[in-house]
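are you around this afternoon, could really use another pair of eyes. what follows is a protein written twice so to speak, once as letters and once as structure tokens for the fold. i want to understand how the tokens follow from the sequence so walk me through it. anything you notice is useful, everything is just below.
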Amino acid sequence: MTTTERAERTEPSTVAGEREMLEGWLEYHRETLAVKCAGLDEDRLRETSVPPSDLSLLGLVRHMAEVERGWFRNTLADEKARPIYFTDADQDGDFHPGPDDTWDEAYATWQAEIARARELAAPHALDDFGAGRRRRSTGEPYNLRWIYTHMIEEYARHNGHADLLRERIDGATGD
């Protein structure tokens, strides 16, 4: 999607079974973030909220690429995938795009991580435990149901941020 295209969303089913419902809501929230970014140029995608925050739509997309990677590649599949945008020196590097970082790259990376997440989740049942990272405090594994629920929560929270950013940028509102 270029920034001039208008993204579309698919409404989640109201009568689906558990897995279809979870996957439907996750897709809906992924699509919502794309909708919030649609139609903006590079400069507007980099606009931050209000000081001291450096939150931007571009940063949110980069962050969600990292989140998809962390939960599906590292927690579910134990791929031990390295971070894309953040480093030990800048733990919030996903939120700090540099002058050479572009929307096209961030969007493509985010979409690639989503595609990989779908691929990794497909063969698993909701009760299947991830092979990787465990909860630090208890050592408990995460099952796919927990990962889906957490991803929905993560997107929903950040889509609220995206709502406010978009309204600040050009006055656009909506769900």
